[in-house]
Amino acid sequence: MKKIIFPVDFSKASLNAFPYALHLAKKMGAEIITIHVYNDINLPYPDYHDYIMEKYQIAELEQFENFRDEVPKLRTIAEKEQLGRVIVRHVLKEGDTQDSILKVALDEKADFIVMGTKGASGLKEVFLGTLTQKIMNNSKIPVIAIPENCKYLPLKKILFITEYNLSQLPILKKIHNLALLFNAHIDVLQVTNFDNRQDEIFSDEWKKIRPISEVNFYLLNSIDIEGTIFDFIEHHKINWITLSTHHYNFFEKLYHLSLSKNLAYHSDIPILSIYEK
Description:
Number of helices: 9
Distance between the termini: 25 Å
Structural class: alpha/beta
CATH superfamily of the largest domain: HUPs
Radius of gyration: 20 Å
Largest sheet: 10 strands, mixed
Domain UspA: 1-147
CATH topology of the largest domain: Rossmann fold
Number of domains: 2
Pfam family, one: Usp
Shape: elongated
Organism: Flavobacterium terrigena
InterPro entries: Universal_stress_UspA, UspA
Protein name: Nucleotide-binding universal stress protein, UspA family
Helix content: 25-40%
Strand order of the largest sheet: 3-2-1-4-5-10-9-6-7-8
């Protein structure tokens, strides 16, 4: 069975992202594995073994009870979305949050990680020092980041921001497979200050892979890369953004966007990051 990892801390951001995990699971025929991670206790008396073990057991019990009490919130959301039959399994882990999420995702051979991202500054929160950004940087499994203010909408228009390298054709294939589940359209876009017609080469190679597909290819010339991308998002009514990323340079793969502009206007758009080998 296909699997979706859903990190949850029961914050507004994580609960808000749960409908996306549910609807994706329904379309894929997947189960959702929620994971809640808590840190181990750090006591100042390492020599007092019995005291530490007693406190550790109490801390673990409290974490379990808190987790148990919060889980019904997810069931309520599922019933509200009329997706109560989606299989949901719960995992409680102690340790480093990032490492625990990535390990569970790998051990379970997950297809996606879906997680909420906090803050009203939208895309900026995804890129600058958040847990979501760290997971995106280090995950070989596709990660879907749902901004806190984003309300669930069916997937209709996907934007794939690319450099038109032929190495990204497998990425587009994964995006297209997702689009087929939702009957969604894909726009592929590069914004650059020079024109090498690489989009035509990329498009021709794509048609050899999928001769019939709802995919359009755009290459726009502009020195204002950031502004042009967001104008495209608004004009084409994009409701998902997709990026390919290497482990070490997720931020650089976004064409060195300055993020100097106010991105809160676009804080209601989910972002799908797919690892590029």
